[in-house]
């Protein structure tokens, strides 16, 4: 069957007017290159110079759960806006790409899968918050169970983060006397957290390291970092 195609009408702005009143009901049709170019140029100019009252509306919305978490983090800014909290907020929503694999320093290590700039938050040291008394008990129990390495990180005088059986990739970071990262204690929502920062630019596939800063003891733990200024021991 053949039927006459309704004559194309154009609006004042040069675009075709839909005969049926709805673009979806008319199916696929081609647009003249001149009209298409005019439409693209208008949109491009609008995108380059957005109105002041629409700049906030065009921001992508976060899921409800993340928005509430972001509000909780922002509410912890009492008066002044702390840069550490801002960076920690960014770290929660945009984690660095890291991987753990065999290390030339010791056993397993953590490596960067993307370039990391200097003074960036790399990863949070996650584990169970325990007291000093519990840490002493667990250390003896780990020795009895044959666990060679315990991953405990001291936060303050009586708080220790134990990542031996409950932690993340941060526990695989090896010690180095010439590290490319350092550990820092920050406070978020009245809770102390340990975050690993980058001291310098870190390349892809470069191992993440920091100085454990163990206290000086009579029984020495050998250091295998192999750096030029290696102290020879961890403590």
Characteristics of this structure?
single chain; 235 residues; alpha+beta; Beta-clip-like; four-stranded mixed sheet; 4 helices; SET_dom_sf; methyltransferase
Q: Label the overall shape.
A: elongated
> How many distinct beta strands?
12
Strand order of the largest sheet: 3-4-12-9
Mean pLDDT: 76
- Counting H and I runs of at least 4 residues, what is the number of helices? 4
Concise account of the structure shown:
It comes from Crotophaga sulcirostris (Groove-billed ani). It is found in: Nucleus. The protein is α+β, with helices and mostly antiparallel strands and 235 residues long.
Task: Compile the SSE list and pairings.
Layout: E1 9-10, E2 16-17, H1 33-48, H2 64-75, H3 83-93, E3 98-102, E4 108-112, E5 121-125, E6 128-130, H4 132-144, E7 152-154, E8 160-162, E9 174-175, E10 181-188, E11 191-198, E12 207-210
Parallel strand pairs: 9-12
Antiparallel strand pairs: 1-2, 3-4, 4-12, 5-11, 6-8, 7-8, 10-11
Domain SET: 96-213
Pfam families: N-SET, SET
Keywords: Chromatin regulator, Methyltransferase, Nucleus, RNA-binding, S-adenosyl-L-methionine, Transcription, Transcription regulation, Transferase
How would you describe this structure to a colleague?
The chain contains 4 helices and 12 strands; from the N terminus they run ββαααββββαββββββ. It has 235 residues and is α+β, with helices and mostly antiparallel strands. A 4-stranded mixed β-sheet has the order 3-4-12-9, with no helix packed on it. Strands 5-11-10 form a 3-stranded antiparallel β-sheet, with helices on one face. Strands 6-8-7 form a 3-stranded antiparallel β-sheet. Helix 2 (64-75) packs antiparallel against helix 3. The longest helix is centred in the first third of the chain and has 16 residues, at 33-48. One of its GO terms (biological process) is methylation. It comes from Crotophaga sulcirostris. One of its GO terms (cellular component) is Set1C/COMPASS complex. Residues 96-213 form the SET domain.
């Amino acid at each position: 069957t053949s039927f006459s195609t309704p004559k194309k009408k154009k609006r004042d702005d040069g675009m075709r007017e839909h005969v049926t009143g709805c673009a979806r009901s008319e199916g696929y049709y081609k647009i003249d290159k001149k009209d298409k170019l005019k439409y693209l140029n208008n949109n491009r100019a609008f995108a380059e110079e957005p109105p002041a009252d629409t700049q906030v509306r065009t921001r992508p919305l976060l899921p409800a759960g993340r928005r509430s978490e972001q509000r909780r983090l922002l509410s912890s800014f009492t008066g002044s806006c702390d840069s550490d909290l801002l960076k920690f907020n960014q770290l929660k929503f945009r984690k660095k790409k890291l991987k753990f694999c065999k290390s030339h320093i010791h056993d397993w290590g953590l490596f960067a899968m993307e370039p990391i700039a200097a003074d960036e938050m790399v990863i949070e040291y996650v584990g169970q918050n325990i007291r000093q008394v519990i840490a002493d008990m667990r250390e003896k129990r780990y020795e009895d169970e044959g666990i060679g390495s315990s991953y405990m990180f001291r936060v303050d005088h009586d708080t220790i983060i134990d990542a031996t059986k409950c932690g993340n990739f941060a526990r695989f970071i090896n010690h180095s006397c010439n590290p490319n990262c350092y550990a820092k204690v920050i406070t978020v929502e009245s809770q102390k957290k340990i975050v690993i920062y980058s001291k310098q630019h870190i390349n892809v596939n470069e191992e993440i390291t920091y100085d454990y800063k163990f206290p000086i003891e009579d029984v020495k733990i050998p250091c295998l970092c192999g750096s030029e200024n290696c102290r020879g021991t961890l403590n």
